[in-house]
Automatic annotation (TrEMBL):
Residues 151-216 form the HTH luxR-type domain. The keyword DNA repair does not apply. GO terms for molecular function: DNA binding. Residues 6-124 form the Response regulatory domain. This is Two component LuxR family transcriptional regulator. It comes from Actinomadura verrucosospora. GO terms for biological process: phosphorelay signal transduction system; regulation of DNA-templated transcription. The modification 4-aspartylphosphate is found at D57.
Length: 219
């Protein structure tokens, strides 16, 4: 049998933290290995318990979830931990920073239990979790703030078709929507996505979205 995914839950609200842990522990393929209520404890526990992933709140005492994510999954971290950020919708201005800090995805706190479990399994598998409709609202809202200074974007190293796919990803389209837009198969889209990530040395789809906006590839 495959070992269960080991999850660390970090949220400063005890009721939410306990609720998440109860939902996760009820699954045969998931296991909660620890709980904590602030970002500093999350970093310390993650380093001690070595979980497969962390479910991380954004606003917490001592050290917020963004800084905790950067310490666990940011650039230069030797053994990065996968982080799934959970937040309330009216705090979405923090989510972009969390993604830049290294998070592999995020969910809204009012998401149903099935969506939380899907998110954990998705991120644990190495994929990114960025809901297309939330991508459009989040990145679109802050595009002016994150657009870089004028210059030649590094993304021009991509082939024209790859650039086209990257722009569609950044605009929040799923693989199936990209396939329909470009009239190609989903397998072909997956191939393009894989090439884009490899060429730009990006970890996942989330980083691709951030990259596209930071390099002015999306208007």
């Amino acid at each position: 049998m495959t070992a269960p995914v080991r999850v660390l839950v970090c949220d400063d609200q005890a009721l939410i933290r306990t609720g998440f842990a109860t939902i996760i522990d009820a699954q045969p393929d998931l296991e909660v290995v620890g709980e904590c209520g602030d970002g500093r404890a999350a970093v310390d526990l993650a380093r001690r318990l070595d979980p497969d992933m962390v479910v991380m709140d954004v606003r917490m005492p001592v050290l917020d979830g963004i800084e905790a994510t950067r310490l666990l999954a940011g650039a230069g971290v030797e053994n990065p931990v996968k982080v799934l950020v959970v937040t309330t919708f009216n705090l979405d201005e923090y989510v972009y920073e969390a993604l830049r800090a290294g998070a592999s995805g995020f969910l809204l706190k009012d998401a149903p239990p099935a969506q939380l479990l899907h998110g954990i399994r998705t991120v644990a598998s190495g994929a990114a979790l960025l809901a297309p409709e939330v991508t459009r609202q989040l990145v679109g809202r802050y595009a002016a703030r994150i657009r870089p200074v004028p210059g030649t974007p590094e993304g021009t190293a991509l082939a024209p078709r790859e650039l086209e796919v990257l722009r569609l990803i950044a605009n929040g389209l799923s693989n199936s929507e990209i396939a329909a837009t470009l009239v190609i198969s989903q397998e072909t889209v997956k191939t393009y996505v894989s090439r884009i990530l490899t060429k730009l040395d990006l970890r996942d789809r989330v980083q691709a979205v951030v990259y596209a906006y930071r390099n002015g590839l999306v208007t």
